[in-house]
Write a structure and sequence with these properties.
This protein is mainly α. The chain contains 17 helices and no strands. The longest helix is centred in the C-terminal third of the chain and has 28 residues. The mean pLDDT is 91.
Length: 275
């Protein structure tokens, strides 16, 4: 059961939630001691595993029928096959998230609550954002909210608007890109998404535009961050020119995102150490 839960939580993607926390902590902290404070450790611990169990568990429970025809579930991702263990784990993870909302500094609570609402609403009815083209992409800004909460918890102030906007655009593109390998299974299941509407090429163009906007928005905050984010539209061009299969490139992004996130985090930590 534990093995099943861990596989369903997508260990390769754990840093998609925990990574923004590290970035937020590195820029929100004013001293090295704050990086190891109880709020910092609690946020990182929750978004490393329980938040992933919550987010992907809700997705798998409500997508069980469609996932039966998705070949991606045969390998690196697990397939939910019923039973009570996963729903129970999802509920427990949600309750842990609500507990975190209650004990977090007030300025961080809206970001945490937003993550829980969007995380459930993305897959669960009646909202089920994932089945509405473009709203599925926009709602995936939820991946930025852990970082925003972490920054707010340590800085005692909301995160910079340009950082939230740039991160939101990045997450929108990342979601659309990850949906390209699911186009055929989603179409067979009757699920309409941004990717099924635009097609593979159109979705790649959409991703490139969102990532370019993300880079421009981050550049308004710090030109170095904007330059770093230009790696993403450049990669889209590389996949198109090199005729790289997206369902292959998709599995390279955990490493790509980890590298970009590490660079952003090190920049924040450098500021903490200098301070």
């Amino acid at each position: 059961m534990i093995r099943q839960l861990l596989k369903l939580s997508r260990p390769r993607f754990w840093l998609y939630l925990a990574g923004p926390v590290l970035v937020g902590l590195s820029y929100g902290a004013s001293s090295v001691d704050e990086l190891l404070s109880p709020p910092a450790l609690a946020l990182f611990a929750y978004f490393l595993v329980p938040a992933n169990v919550f987010l992907y568990g809700v997705n798998d429970v409500f997508d069980a029928d469609a996932d039966e025809r998705n070949p991606k579930k045969d390998g690196r991702e697990g397939r939910y096959r019923g039973g009570g263990a996963v729903p129970i784990a999802v509920v427990v993870s949600a309750l842990l998230g609500l507990a975190l909302v209650l004990v977090a500094p007030p300025v961080a609570r809206p970001w945490l609550l937003g993550f829980l609402v969007l995380g459930a609403g993305y897959s669960a009815p009646p909202l089920r954002f994932k089945a509405t083209p473009f709203l599925d992409s926009v709602s995936n800004g939820l991946y930025v909210l852990p970082g925003a909460a972490a920054y707010a918890a340590l800085a005692a102030t909301p995160p910079p608007p340009f950082a939230v906007a740039g991160g939101w655009l990045w997450a929108m593109a990342m979601h659309a890109f990850s949906a390209i390998p699911d186009i055929d299974p989603d179409r067979r299941a009757g699920i309409r998404t941004t990717a099924t509407v635009l097609g593979a090429r159109g979705t790649l163009a959409y991703c490139a535009v969102c990532w370019l906007l993300a880079a421009g928005t981050f550049a308004l905050l710090d030109p170095r961050a904007g330059a770093l984010l230009l790696a993403y539209p450049a990669l889209v061009a590389a996949w198109v020119v090199g005729d790289v299969a997206i369902d292959r490139a998709y599995w390279w992004y955990p490493a790509i995102n980890a590298a970009v996130g590490a660079a952003l985090t090190l920049g924040g930590l450098w500021g903490v150490v200098r301070g």
